[in-house]
Design a protein that fits this description.
With about 230 residues, the protein is an alpha+beta fold. The chain contains 4 helices and 12 strands. The protein folds into 3 domains: about 40 residues, no CATH class; about 80 residues, no CATH class; about 100 residues, no CATH class.
Length: about 230
């Protein structure tokens, strides 16, 4: 199997899971990333659930795509008639431009729904809520209360906070701060939080179980507001 070596300067655009070896050169510190270049075909016989679990990891940790391959089914399409979609809620986990992107053929589009449900459950994502595109008051580290703006962003569960976390833009959208949902609502008592959960029909049993786990978690852990 062939391999490739990439020398890169430290920067914020490398996906965090890429851990290379640090070396010192005449030009300063660099990182070496070594990766094999596989030529094998995708395994089209893999169980759908296993394929989607692997894909969910890959789409947040690797940027490479196989040309003309449907990532949801593993099938090759010579005409390259493929679509690209981003999992709803991706921005709550990563702002990398490749994160959460899925390349698929229209015949596999229904599997995209399964993958999104798996993603929402894994990170306890809330992607449809009424805090988007509005000004809110937030407490800065200095102790001052300032006005921030919630863009079109999703929430995610933060284990260390035991609450959901939402990104808020500050100072004319030049800064971004993660705000704990409970603290945000305490500072903005005029806001009546509303969270809207999707509904689906005819999900396979294994997807239905994941979906129920996700919706139950959201309903049990949103402590103020309405979940519909």
């Amino acid at each position: 199997m062939n391999s490739v070596r990439i020398d890169v300067d430290d920067n914020t655009h490398l996906i965090k899971s890429w851990k290379g070896e640090k070396i010192i050169t005449d030009e300063g510190e660099k990182t070496i990333i070594a990766s094999s270049m596989g030529t094998e075909l995708l395994n089209t016989d893999m169980e759908l659930k296993d394929r989607l679990e692997i894909l969910l990891f890959r789409c947040f940790n690797f940027t490479s795509k196989r040309c003309n391959y449907d990532e949801l089914s593993g099938k090759y399409y010579a005409g390259g008639d493929l679509n690209m979609a981003m999992l709803r809620g991706t921005e709550a986990i990563s702002l990398h431009h490749c994160a959460g992107n899925i390349c698929y053929h229209e015949s596999s589009e229904k599997y995209l729904k399964f993958l999104e449900i798996m993603f929402w459950d894994k990170h306890k994502i809330i992607f449809d809520h009424n805090l988007k595109n509005r000004d809110i008051k937030i407490l800065r580290s200095s102790g001052e209360i300032e006005t921030g703006f919630v863009e079109d962003v999703s929430m995610r569960w933060g284990d260390s906070y035991d609450d959901f976390v939402l990104k808020v833009s500050l100072e004319n959208k030049t800064l971004e701060k993660g705000i704990v949902l409970g603290k945000l609502l305490d500072l903005n008592p005029d806001i009546e939080l509303e969270i809207r959960l999707p509904t689906f029909n005819d999900l396979p049993d294994w997807v239905e179980k994941i979906f129920l786990n996700w919706t139950t978690f959201i309903k049990n852990n949103v402590r103020s507001g309405t979940v519909i």
